[in-house]
Fold these 4 entries.
Entry 1:
Amino acid sequence: MHAWPASEVPALPGQGRDLRIHDTATGGPVTLQPGPVARIYVCGITPYDATHMGHAATYNAFDLVQRVWLDTKRQVHYVQNVTDVDDPLLERAQRDDVDWVELAERETTLFREDMTALRMLPPRHYIGAVEAIPGIVPLVERLRDLGAAYELDEDVYFSVESDPHFGGVSHLDAEAMRLLSAERGGDPDRPGKKNPLDPVLWLAARDGEPSWDGGSLGRGRPGWHIECVAIALDHLGMGFDVQGGGSDLAFPHHEMGASHAQVLTGEFPMAKAYVHAGMVALDGEKMSKSKGNLVFVSRLRRDGVDPAAIRLALLAHHYRSDWEWTDQVLQDAVARLGRWRSAVSRPDGPPADALVEEIRDALADDLNAPASLAAVDRWAARQQERGGEDTGAPGLVSRAVDALLGVAL
């Protein structure tokens, strides 16, 4: 599966700072010091509907991570998956009376277009669950051979008790885990499981559903968590720098994935930091496909909204905060974009070297994008009020905003 085209990242004078970011697993900040190649895995979409603002906010957060690392003169090895076969996709295809493959391909294409418009840097490897199945099957077989998996009515489950570190990502108690498991794709009430929290690794073939050859596992399809583990281990290996996604993935998805990988390899941890973006609400409730309370990036674009304004609307909120999308949020972003473009279109302005460092400092401090925007606002206000004598300043500001914030002025 191919990703989307990369926008050029302008080079800036000087060098960025190492990223200090909140790690869900430790509950506090960690300073990431990757090697020459920083490694990041961000969980991708299940393509049964278009990209909404909750998706966009999450991918914007991890785009900033990439940009901070690139500014430190590192390379970035970014991997993202597409869960192109799963229950929600099959249910939507059946509801709409469309082929599930056609639905997945259509929505993945739209997602790529949205990411391109928003200037999100693409992953080096963009892998679908279906194409990962040949690598998933041996991992499930190995977990079974290790005694960490068991069969139940031909389905294969992972035993969470096989990982002594289970619970170390989300730090939730058993009852909270059980409730979230039921809410987020698990089946804690299924009779016969060794532990209600045990997640499925391989789902045996069902009538009317797609299935693949699973070798000794029989025909079926993979569970959600093992999909990401297989892709991450194949392309990044253990101990990569950041595992990212929305805060609703901390449990069960990232918790289970970490346990799968740690049992498979005997190494700990799977990732050096587990980083989670907040949720975006609409009319008082979290945006979600199941509720249908969505604001789509593609619809805003069709309505003539500049993607740079959409991106500024996302950047106006700290990535870890939960916030609500409103018309005012978008109007503020459109106005800000106009002020910035007006400022950089002038022939000169106040010196901007200090501004670049201010943006760098803010982003290195747990991706404080709102502080970065405020710094650019102050520079633009000074430029509009008093002008300036530095003919290179507007160009430097434009390049810095593009390189570090992904906003093309």
Note: The CA atoms of residues 296 and 396 lie 32 Å apart.
Entry 2:
Amino acid sequence: MIGVIATYLSDYIFPSIIRGIESSLSSAGYTLVVASTNNDIEKEKQCLVNMLDKKIDGLIVEPTKTGSFNPNLNYYLTLEQHHIPYLMINQFYQELNPPHFILDDEHGGFIATEHLIKLGHEKLFGFFKQDDMQGVNRMKGFIRAFRENGLSFYPEMVVTYTTENKKEKTIAEARKRLSSTDRPTAIFCYNDEIALMVLDVVREFGLKVPEDISIVGYDDSHLSEASEVKLTSVTHPKMKMGIEAAKWMIAKVEGRNTDQLEHSTVYKPELVVRHSTAKLKR
């Protein structure tokens, strides 16, 4: 019996990851026990306690709020003491450095931003989630793109938000920036969900994408093609990550080829260019 704890289960990219995990585990005769934290520390604690009570044989975790110290680390140490293998997906707790399957988010932020810069955009800003390391790393890539392309960077080019204020902060900041006389010409978004929120505000102001504003999303989720404007977006190996994480866990639980198991996998994202980005009109 393998436990899976994710921040979310039923929306965005998470169903694809879960399907990947389930397909590998079920075909190998394993039972899957799934729980969601809603990216809440206290809920993560409850999930971990429940998993330990169920006497799972292994655990696949998407960690909660990796941007700060997590008070639940003792539960992971308990797993180690009981010789229950666990791995983390999408990100990991730096204090534990467990086996992990993650995306090179700094590279993703870099290629998305450089794409906009190469199209001539210099007045741009980005939305970044600050309570998860994915957002921190994507912001690093965003800033690095300015440095490596010899462009000036200003703090106001970055907008940060948290799990709790995601929607209101995104909408408020988008309205503020788009109503400015010095309006940006391009926007980088932490993920496709944020990109669609920004797209709604762009419409609200009577602007067009990409004619007036270029937008780049992240994760290449189903949302990237959900509106009339198909989003340029950074890829995420959703199903592949789930399948490979599950295969790693099966090999670990069964003690097969453990010496040959890679400790961790870092996927290199790519940019899928669609209709939401265009060259800046001079």
Note: The radius of gyration is 20 Å.
Entry 3:
Amino acid sequence: MVDNYPEEPLQPPWPKPKPYTSNIFRRLARGWKSWFGLLNEWDFRVSLGELNLLGKRVFLVNDPLLVRKVLVDEVDLFPKHPYTLWILEPLIGRAIFSVNGEEWAIQRRLIDQAFQVANLKKAFPAMTAATSSLLHRLEMNGVDSFVDIDKEMTMVAADVIIRTILSRPIEGDEATDIFKAFSRYQRHAGRALVLRFLRLPKSLIQLSLKDDAKVIRNWIQAFIHERLEQNKVDERNPLEKIDFLDTLIMAEDPKTKKKFSEQDLVDQVCFLFLAGHETSASSLGIAAWLLARSPEVQKQMRVEVMSVVCDRPIHSMLRFDELRQLPYSEAVFNEALRLYPPVSFFIRDRDKKDGELATSEGRRRCPVGSLLTLSPWVIQRHDKYWPEPHQFKPERFLKNSSSLQRNAFLPFGMGPRKCPGASFAKQEALLVLAELVRRYELLPVTDQDPDFVGLLTVRSQNGIRLRLRELEHKT
């Protein structure tokens, strides 16, 4: 691999924070369409911010040591905030992402057990099949074509997760309906947090979410019910080929002997689909856009990929073990996650006893009922923790790099509640992006930058358009 990094790293456009305002209603209005509007310029400079939001103490936690305290060292004192459950409950019910305490612990043991059975190597064929479908769709566009890469990455991410969980591809018409329902749910969910700050009741907040959630839940429940009915009469060997739904059905908590009920399975699969499809779609589309804007980075990634596949024909895709030989490609994806983390904020609750939050800048009282926001979007662009924080520099994630700050890179969270699918997402991203740069030169569409907004995930309101120029290769 040739280590010729760009002399002038790219500083891609991003929705910059607004000037400071002490007017709470103006700030909430700015955050109506995107939570980024709630942020002020000083949020990216302080270690700990504090705001009295209509009687509620709200803290913005930026200090890496304090982040570790909240997410790792004293995680029991800072559970998921009830707002998380209220916003997501219509879609994912009481799935692992938004519950706390023993309910979460049981679910985590069951989920971990399922991931151990359905490991990354077993999931790889589903990823390869979905990636092959993506490449076929792109090939049909022609040798030099314009595409909405955000739309294509949404499709391939959904295809990967559905093939992995249910052993079937996602079809065109059903995909369109489901993606539209997700898009509407995202918009309404982003506004639900603002409405809750304005003291609107939970029942009213969830009313705007239920119709779109029902479309998705009914779709998933039909597959789960069919599988459970099939299992009643299916006498196949349980060790034969199984998918992730099978592992969830078979999982049993060693402590309580609890298993997932049909309703539990719907909740968990809805969450896994939300997490596995929506976050991967966001990060894949943005990573491809960054590569298109960074020709030297793209070239270096392509050189690395080609050094692994050597003279194999183009129809022979990357193999499972070969993904471990792509350190620069992994650094590219990590840098995309740093600049545009799909889940841009987490909220936690101080629910047991009064305490304090301490940083090098001082101490703040943190009473019971306080809301703590930990934002990868802010922390990963904070100039105190990252040199040249707004520039696209994948090399900062390579080995022996001193610029990667401990506890300041958390696109998947950290601690016991870190996303259990982080390795899955990275494997999927490496495969898709490597096969893409292997076949195409990615070129930007200069007259249309993405309009990024912060909702449940970071997405572009106007899509992400790229030009794909097919490369010459062996067949």
Note: Confidence is low (pLDDT under 50) at residues 1-7.
Entry 4:
Amino acid sequence: MEPGDRLGLLAPDAVREHADGLAALLVDAVDGGASVGYPAPLDPAEAAAWWAGTAGTRDVWAAFGPDGAVTGAVTLLRTATANGRHRGEIARLLVHRSARGRGLGRRLLAAAEAHAAATGLTLLVLDTQTDSPAERLYRGAGWTAAGTIPEYAADPEGTLRATTLYYKLLA
């Protein structure tokens, strides 16, 4: 990490406060071809509205560069069903293209995993586009591929792509 990069769990008010920076991160991901739920081009206002809407519904970690710009983020969504309170989902692990290659994705993922374990979760799940660079990160962090679903989601250009489901036992 470069000096000055910092990472933290954001309170709901802080998520709303940083919605524009988080939106720029999401737009960068879509522009870079990441399949994160949006077609390209993604309107920054739509991206900011998504982040503002997550405040209080999921845990959000953000990384900030030396200049205060958002350089990465990850969210943890808890399962609300009575029989699933032991599990959570990692979603939208994003690292700005200008901040890649410094271990930021691994740090964000580790922070979310540690928090999940400390708050009683024992199982995490996630999905990612098959053959994406993210798969190397997840496998290297001890995640297990559970299976692949063909034509699961469209990439930013609209092409249907396979998705691989992953899980990690925390206890």
Note: The CA atoms of residues 28 and 97 lie 7 Å apart.
